[in-house]
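If your schedule permits, I should be very grateful for your opinion on a structural question. The matter concerns a single protein, recorded as an amino acid sequence and a row of C-alpha cells. Could you please explain, in whatever detail you think fit, how the C-alpha cells follow from the sequence? I set the record out below, with my sincere thanks for your time.

——
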Amino acid sequence: MRTPGKRLGCLAVLAIIALDGGSGIALAGEPGGGWWSLVPLREQAPPALASGCDASNPIDAFLNEKLARSGLTPAPEADRRTLIRRLSFDLLGLPPGAEDVEAFLLDADPLAHERLVDRILASPRYGERWARHWMDVAHFAETHGHDQDRIREHAWPYRDYLIASFNADLPYSRFVEEQVAGDVLYPGEARVVPALGFLAAGPWDESTLRDIREDTIDRQIGRYIDRDDVVTTVMNTFASVTVQCARCHDHKFDPVSTRDYYALQACFAGVDRANRRYDPDPAVHSRRRELSERLRRVRAGEKELLLSSEVQARARAWEADVAQGAVAWKTFDLETFTTSSGTELSRLPDGSLLASGKRPERDAYTLTSLLGEEPVTAIRLEVLPDDSLPMRGPGRADNGNLHLSEVRAHLFEPGAKAPRVLKLVNPSADFDQEGWTIAHALDGQDSTAWGIHPREGEAHEAVLELAEPLQAVRGTRLALVLSQAHGGGHLIGRLRASFTSASPVSRARVLPEPIRRALAVERGERTEADRIALGAHCESERLRKAIASLPPAALVYAAAADFEPDASHKPAGGPRTIHVLHRGDIHQPREVASPGALACVEALPSRFVVDGALGEGERRAALARWLVDPRNPFAWRSIVNRVWHYHFGRGIVDTPNDFGRMGGLPSHPELLDWLAVWFRDEADGSLKALHRLIVTSTAYRRSSQHSGKAARIDSENRLLWRMHRTRLDAESLRDAVLALAGDLDERMGGPSDRLFMLRPGIHVTPIVDYSQFEVGSPVGRRRSVYRFLFRTLPDPVMDALDCPAGDQLTPVRNASVTVQQALALWNSAFVAHHAERFARRVAALEPTPEGRVRLAFELALGRPPAREELEELRAYAERHGLESLCRLIFNLNELAFVS
C-alpha cells in the first residue's frame, strides 16, 4: 500500500484534471459517478479531430485531440536509425544488427515501419524480453528468500512457460487463467502446469512453514502471511487493486472490505508452494492422467469398477499366480552384526536382532551373512515386537515408532577389492502409510523414511527385490546396511532379515492384512467386501506398475495441492478453513470466509458459493474466471496500461499496480477505456496486436526532442508531446554488451545459468561469491533472462543497475543514477572482458585504425560518428588502445539510453 506521504498532492490532481480538460475522470463522491476504475468499460469512438490533427491510428486520435486542446505542438517523427534502435530494445531487449539497420534505411516502402514491427514481433527474442517484464511483476526468483534463502532447483520451468506463451501470443484471458488455475481449467494440456509457478513465484518462509510444528500458532500465522503474498500478487498484477490493505481492517481508501480480502485468501486455502510433478510430453501427460484417474477411482472403492468382470478376472488370475508360488525364506545366518554408534545389539534364538542401549539421532546397522551358491532374488525385513521395547515396539521411540531412512545391500565377493552395490527395487510392505512408505527407504534421502506407528506390539514386514537375481559363489558375503537418520530416537528395536531364491520374486511381495484375510476364504464363500478388496489390490498394483513404467515426471516449483512432503511441510488434503481475522489477529477469528472476490465489481458476484463447499481447484478456477470476465473493468484496464507503461516509460495510470485512490489518475481515461475494450473484443486478447497498435502510432514514433514551450505547459510529458528518453534496464545493457562482443548465446530454455560460485552454508543457507565466477565462461553467455536469480544475494553489478531481486513486486523499476553504476560499468570484470572481445571482433572486421573506431561506434550506437566524435575517439584509441576505447563505448550515455 502506498504511504500517505507518497499520495498525489491536490495541486497535482488539479493539474492533471486541467490537462484532461474535464474529460471525464470521475472522482469518488462526485455526483453521477464512482471512482474511475470502478466504472464499467464503455465502448466509444475515437474523438473527431480538429483540422490539421488527422490520425490513422486511433491512439493518435485520442492523444492529438488533447494536445490540440492544450495548445501543444508535438515533436517531429524520429529518424529511422532512432526508430529501429527504439523498437529493437523495446520489443527484443537487444540492439539491432548492422544489416537490419542498413536494410531499414534503404527500404522506401511507406509501410517499412509496420513490416519491421512484424518481423521483430515474430522473433523468439520477443518472448525472452517480455517474460523478463512479467517476472518483475510476479517477483519471480529462484530462492525462498527470508533467513535461509534455500535454492529452488525447479523454479525455471515457469520462466520457460512465460517465454513460450509470449512467443505464441497466447490470448490474455487464457494467460491469466493458466497462471491461476490452468491445472483445473485445462487438465488435458501438459504445458499448463508450469504456469502455476506464478502463484509460487514470491518469497516463502521456510523456517515457519517447514521447520516448526504443524500445531503451533506461528505456523498458522505463517500460512496467513504466505497466502497474503499470493493474494497480493494475483490482485495487484491482474486487477491493479491493493487488496492487501484490507488484511487488518476495511481498506481505508478503496471499497475493499476485510471480508473480501479473506474471501480471496479462501480461494488459495488448499495449495502450498512446492515441487509439483508434470509431464512435458503431451502423450505421457494424457496416459498418466488416464491411469491416475483410474487409480483414484480404485482407491475411492467404486463398486461398479471393482466388481466389473474385467477387474475380477484379473484378480482371479493374480490369485492363481500367488497360489502357485510358495516362497521359502532363509533367515540371515549372521556372520557379523555392527552398529555405527555403539548401540547394543543382541542376537535372539530365532535369528532376530534386538537393539538396546543408546538412542542416538543417527545410526546404522550392518548385517553380514555368508552365502552359499544358491541365487538370491529378494530380501525380507521383519520388524518384531518385544517386551523390552517401549509400547512393545517395533521401534525404540517412546511410543514404539520406527524410522528406517535407508536400506542398502552390498556384495563382498571372494578376491574382489571392493564390495559391489546391489540395486534394490519394487519395495512392498504391509504397513505403508502415505508419506512414510517403504519406497522412502530406497530414495537415498535422509529426510524421508519408512515409518511405522502400529498398534502396540504389532509385527510388520517389507520385501525388497534385487534388480537382477544374484548368483553367488561359495564364500560370498551379503551385507545389509539399515540406516536411521531422521532424528528423534525413532530407532529400530527388533528385526530379522531373510532372503529367497523364489522366481518370479513378485510372488514374494508383502500382502496387506485385508488381502490375506480375503485369500483365506474359499472363493465361493467370499463376501462382496472380500471381492472388492481383492479387485482393488490387484487393480491398484497393476496401475502403479503402469504409472511407474512411464518416463519420470518433470518437476516445477509451483502452487500444488499434492506434493512430496518435506519435513513438516505436507499437503493440506483439501481447503483449509479460513477465518476473517478481526484486526488481522490470529487470536480473534470471526466467521469462516467463503471463497470469492470483490463486492465493488457490481456486475459480477462477489462470492462463488454461499456455503463455501467448493473444492480446492474449483476455488481457483472460479477466481480465474472472475478475473477475465468481460464485465470486470479492472483486468482489461490493468493489462493495457501495463503494456503502455513498458512502451512509453510511464503508464496512462502511472501506478500500474494501484488503480485506487492512493494511486495515480489516468492522463487519458477515454483512451485507456478504448484500448481495454479494443484489446478485449477486437484483438481477442492478443498482446502482439496491442504492441503493434502502440508502436505503429505517431506518438510512439515521435522524437524525444525537447521543447521549452511545451515543457512549460506539460513538464512531465503526460500528454506525450514527445517520446520519453529511457535508460536501458540492467538486462538489456548486459545483453547488448554480449551481443556487441559477438558472445551472445541464443540457446533458449532449461535450467538457469549460475553466474557465481556456490558453497553450502550452515544448514541450507547458501554462500555465494560472484567475484569468483569466470566471466568468459560459456555459462555466462546466454541472455540475462536465463540468469539464476537469488533474492537475498543478488549479482552486485545487476543490483547496482536497478535489477530487482524478487523480494517485492516490481511494477515499475527504479531508474536511479548513482556512482555505483558508473563504477560497475567501468571496472567490472564482465565489462572489461567483453570490451576485449568487442575489440577483437572489430579488429577482425576492419583493418585500419580509423575504420575500427568508426565500426565500433556504429555497431554500438546504430549511427556513424560525427567528424568531431571520430577525431576525439581516434585520438583516445591511439593513446589507450582499442580495448580501452571499446570499454569507453560501453560506458557512453548514448548506449545506456534509448531516445
Q: What stands out?
A: The longest strand covers residues 460-471. The chain is about 40% helix and 15% strand.
